[in-house]
Amino acid sequence: MKYQSQKIGLAYFLVAMVLFAVQVSLGLVLGWIYVDGTFLSEILPFNVGRMLHTNSLIVWLLLGFFGAAYYLIPEEAEREIHSPKLAYLQLAIFVLGTAGVVVTYFFNLFEGNFLLGREGREFLEQPRWVKAGIVVAALIFLYNVSMTVLAGKKTAITNILLLGLWGLALLFLFAFYNPSNLALDKMYWWYVVHLWVEGTWELVMASILAFLMLKLTGVDREVVEKWLYVIAALALFSGILGTGHHYYWIGTPGYWQWIGSIFSSLEVVPFFAMMAFAFVMVWKGRRDHPNKAALLWSLGCATLAFFGAGVWGFLHTLHGVNYYSHGTQITAAHGHLAFYGAYVCLNLAIISYAMPILKGRDPYNQVLNMASFWLMSGGVVFMTFTLTFAGTVQTHLQRVMGVNYMEVQDQLWVFYAMRFASGIAVVLGALLFIYAVLAPRREVIEPGMQTPAE
Amino acid sequence: MEERAEGRPTLLDELPGELMMWVLIVSELVVFGAGLAAFLAVRITDPSGFAEAQSHLHRAGAGVNTIVLVTSGWLAACAVQAAEAGHIGRLRSLVAGAIALGAVFLVIKAAEYVDLAAAGISFETHAFFTFSYLLTGFHAAHVIAGMILLAVVAVPGSPRAVETGAAFWHMVDLVWVLLFPVVYLL
């Protein structure tokens, strides 16, 4: 660790991993509710559990991004973070907001209150005071990292990372705009939801991946930067108008069906480019970095993002297909593998890379961590297949044959049971990961005859 | 790309202008190509309806526009030669000519849109018009973007900048040459 303020990343990663454990545990509970519909129905209604599952996911991923930014920006800009104090204040605001959200959702406090009650919009349910807190925390963050970068060295990695993070924060402002017209409400709602995960977050992903490739493979910075700019351009080109794939059936004009179909089909291209980038860098790299776990997560991230976001997204993005598959378990399959591949693996990759350095245990190659990769990824991929099959059966029975929704759900029981089993693997994998990065002190496998790391 | 570091130029380095411009050009061609393919595919489901709808378009105006845009592309190509020869003044007047013809294209296009709108024809009138408005409207937006880009690259006037701007402008040309027969004539 060259710069003291990189330590800030540690605090963010720790909170992120706590929320990660909460998120997957709630996922397991929800998975069981699919098997036994009455489970916990009094204490934890499904909609509340789902809010907590998705919201905690978003928050821990964001905390991971912030932690990654605080970790890598000092190294890239070659100077300490502008104000570590502000960085910890930002984290405290996030923790307070998260606690507030959990309590508000769970006990449904202040129902209907303008400021304190939950808002009832999927993914943007947070009470207004929490939203305001998120904006304040985001402003602190942007100020802090922008000041650091402005005063230091500017690289392609920090440029794209800041572009992504600024875009992310500005787009969140649409969360405050809630027109009473439901079609308009949804239209602006996607400005946050879609333009985050299929726009600005992709820029964050590409830049963090580029940082990891630079460190792990030792390929020239010039080469990494060229790839990074191309990937960022492809992501924005396809992702911005790709928003149209959410405008098929919400009351927006019919031409969105073609704009959405064409541009969102191209969203697979930047994900393919990221996968090609990761593998080409590893093949061409001359460095044999001892942190194999970080490399495994990076390659896993690029690959599973390509399949989850790219291939599984394309599967139901054409409007002719989506007319039948919309809102079935196909969507759930895509959502799980896309988020896992693109953003969960990305965060776990940077955590796997940074933690040994932050905790002064470098170098070690984290065999337990690698085991957790296979357990967790195997679980999520299996889950994706069970949900895809469930969704295919559901689409046919419900949308083609016109069978009643609940009767169809009965037919899907076997898939839900298998999905629950794969969920157990994911939770065990997640707990193993957290244990692996925090607990073992010595864990070095003898290197072969390769040249030492630089 | 690794070879660069070893001093050997790669195929990518031989591209005129900026690499990022070529990424954009290929992306644009894919989008317009997909749009035309979708148009032709939907037309199979209703050939007579498409033919009837097409008869409302202004073929002569579009034909003139083809000549206008291709001529504009020629001026842009001459501007690249002028830039390479270092004749800044000549380069800027050629670019101004190319931009002016771009404006002529837009005026003729706008006249057609106004006529269609006056006849009560909108996006929703028929699938044909959804596509023709989308494709030609997207293209017209690129004409505007191209005019701005040409003006921007004429300021430094370096061969690399002008090559980059002209490459985009030729793409706009090329897309029109593909749109014109498919949307107006077939």
TrEMBL record, chain A:
InterPro entries referenced in this protein's UniProt entry, alphabetically: Cyt_c_oxase-like_su1_dom (IPR023616), Cyt_c_oxase-like_su1_sf (IPR036927), Cyt_C_Oxase_1 (IPR000883), Cyt_c_Oxase_su1_BS (IPR023615)
Cell location: Membrane
Entry keyword annotation includes Transmembrane: yes
Membrane topology: Multi-pass membrane protein
Domain Cytochrome oxidase subunit I profile: residue ranges: 15-454
SUPFAM superfamilies named in the record: Cytochrome c oxidase subunit I-like
Similarity field: Belongs to the heme-copper respiratory oxidase family.
This protein's name: Cbb3-type cytochrome c oxidase subunit I
Organism: Albidovulum litorale
